[in-house]
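Chain A, query sequence.
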Amino acid sequence: MLATAVALNLEGAPVSVKDEVAADPVASAVLGGLNMKNLLSAGLSAMPVDSDGVPFDMSHIYASGNIAADMTANVAAESTGRVLAVRLFNLTNDAGMKEMLSYLIARDTMHQNQWLAALEELGGPTGVFPIPNSFPQEKELQEFSYTYLGFQADGSAPATGRWSEGPSVDGKGTYSMRSLSPMGETPNLGSAKPNSGAQAEQL
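Chain A, predicted structure.
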């Protein structure tokens, strides 16, 4: 449906429309980076590729084998998809495109709620997280389970917030914070192999 919508918008588009769209700096940048493959390989017809010309395949489908992880990934996917659809909605003046995008935005609303409902049915934040909840937390290095680590070069304290103070979202700990410091000896990476093309200082 999306590929066909793109093809229909490209088909017979007059130069005057392109010039009008090019007045917008974002749209102008897109037009300046025209994907010639769409013209040369498909004659401006619908192609099974994304907006960068990358063919659709299974790389954008996440299946971890953990239902909670997959539902969480689905929420993120629907969220970013809805953001894109909203941006496209705001970029077009075509009534037909707006109607189609409005439908897609509405479906993303449902899908986000659908996956969140599935997570709720699994037990919500306190039942589902951390994922996988089947791993005994006493086996993880609990010193860092709910510690917010700051990476400030000047050694100053990390910024405080909901993520660093109070009870954890999963209800299984209390947030704390500390500045990150080396936790081991200085690594000895050893010398490079002879005839490896390394600098003299590495041998």
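The CA atoms of residues 151 and 182 lie 11 Å apart. The longest helix spans residues 95-122.
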